[in-house]
Known about the structure:
Layout: H1 19-28, H2 39-46, H3 50-62, E1 66-68, E2 74-76, H4 78-89, H5 93-108, E3 111-118, E4 121-128, E5 143-145, H6 151-158, H7 165-173, E6 176-179, E7 186-194, E8 200-209, H8 215-231
Antiparallel strand pairs: 1-2, 3-4, 3-8, 4-5, 6-7, 7-8
Helix pairs in contact: 1-3, 5-8, 6-7
Amino acid sequence: MVSSTTVPRSPDGVPPSGVLERALLVLACFTEAAPQLHLRELASLSGLDKATLLRMLGTLAAHGYVRRQEDGRYAPGPAVLRLASLYNATTGFDARMMAVLKGVMQRTEESAAFYRRDGMDRVCVCRVNAPRALRHQVEVGERLPLAAGGGAAHVLLGHTGGRSGAAQKAVAQGWLVTAGERDAGLASVTMPVFDGDGSFLGALVVSGPISRQSEAGFEQARGIVAALLREHGFSAERPAGFRPLPN
């Protein structure tokens, strides 16, 4: 089954014309839910024709960014792992945030994720899924339009110049609860994350099925998140004098 994760395209839905942009588009088709894809699936996800894809996949394979398996499906290659290792070696952020998310998940037994703003999208940078059959599951790298709503979208917008009612509420009270806004069966509490120097980093979301959520549970989750963020050098509290800056 082809993953439903949004693959970046131009505003009119037409695949990009640039060779590099097309190559990045192809790589973006691979997700944790669909790490191996047939040519027809890549064509459906990317909007590119098969002839173009075959040429592009051949080049990517030659440089180690994809590999063709015995069953004909394509998957990410070892060069991607090398880049990931280089990224992790140059920043300690992932390790710190993952420690926070794991602690949140263990104490709340719900999924926890961290999002950053990228243009008019929100991107999942880190996540830990709840150890339950019924859970909210997202993927690292998943990209969703801010206009689609959800607690993370409002918190990100509110701290980067957004002026909607929900965005302003998120800034004023320091957190935001949403239920059934983007997904009818999902409820979440979202809090802003600031670095030690007071700079705004993104939004941390604790989410799960509406049937398991309660006001008391969200209040408890807020306390857990705030404590774990402090423990790892972050903060959920807006610094004095903080002014949202346009993204």
